[in-house]
Predict the 3D structure of the following.
Amino acid sequence: MVWHSLVFRWFSIVCAFLFTGALASEADDEAERRELHLYLKGRYLFQKQCTTCHGTTGRGNGPWAAELTDKPRNFRTGIFKFRTTPYGKLPVTDDLRRTIRSGISGTAMPFFKDFSDDDVDALIVFLQSLSREWDKEELQSEPLSLPEIPAWFGSVEKKQKHAASGAPLFKSTCAACHGEEGNGDGPGAKGLMDVWEHPITPAALSAEHHKSGDRPTDLYRTIATGLNGTPMIGYAEVLTEEQIWDLVAFIQSLPDPGKKDA
Ligand code: HEC
Ligand code: HEC
């Protein structure tokens, strides 16, 4: 009698083991199939929509690249400017999603509104297959926690006060490259190169539009996280939240020279 129930117990343990094993490998298969689907779809979409600029192998050397001042990204280097992660780290998928959906203002990088969410996910999986950097644990990071916009942005007077406190900070920390009036013509602006060995000029911050968006939160993000591969470092560790918001207020108070002439 005893041996009988023992055998039964062993039998049920073995069954349970086989069963959950089968379930787990089915889930793995499903995930692998999805990954493969995304990769193939992403490769197809990339060949169709991105190679004129980014090149057939993603090296940033498509037929249009020679004509462009802001060169298309070389995805083989695994270095990305537009991120919510600390300076030097890889972007998270939401960062790539934002760039693909919104484009990069003032450059040839278009925005792609007609892609489905699955299309964008597919392009991201394909982009991530183009560089080994994506396998490096030390380059992965959570996004920085970016603060909510302070209430004083809603008041013209208070904003002016904050812009005034941002002015000396801008002069001491940013003007060397961006120029005292924020026109991108500081003494250190000449001869700057990015890591892709293209000449780069500090942004004209007085201009109406900025590459990665015009909202105060967009400017905050760029100042805090920096733009990888360029001399624009991230200031999250150097400046306080309050100081960064003051700089944003200052940048937004700069007169646009383009508009003055018009
Ligand atoms: C007409 C040219 C053009 C086309 C087409 C184009 N791009 Fe771009 N893309 C650019 C340029 C130029 C930049 C670099 C802008 C900069 O560095 O300021 C860029 C930058 C990017 C970036 C930002 C990388 C970073 O550093 O954060 C991503 C992501 C990107 N492109 C994805 C795509 C994808 C995906 C497609 C196709 C669906 C595509 N691009 C099609 C010109 C193009
Ligand atoms: C060593 C030179 C250098 C210094 C110092 C510097 N920047 Fe920059 N900054 C750059 C360059 C170069 C770019 C353009 C990068 C590009 O176009 O890809 C840039 C871009 C930016 C942008 C992005 C504008 C856009 O179009 O989206 C902002 C915002 C900015 N800088 C703010 C600042 C602030 C604020 C400071 C001071 C705390 C500062 N920078 C200090 C070189 C510098």
The pocket of heme C (ligand 1) is lined by residues 49-50, 52-54, 64, 68, 70, 72-73, 80-82, 96, 99-100, 104, 107-110, 112, 123, 211 (CB under 6 Å).
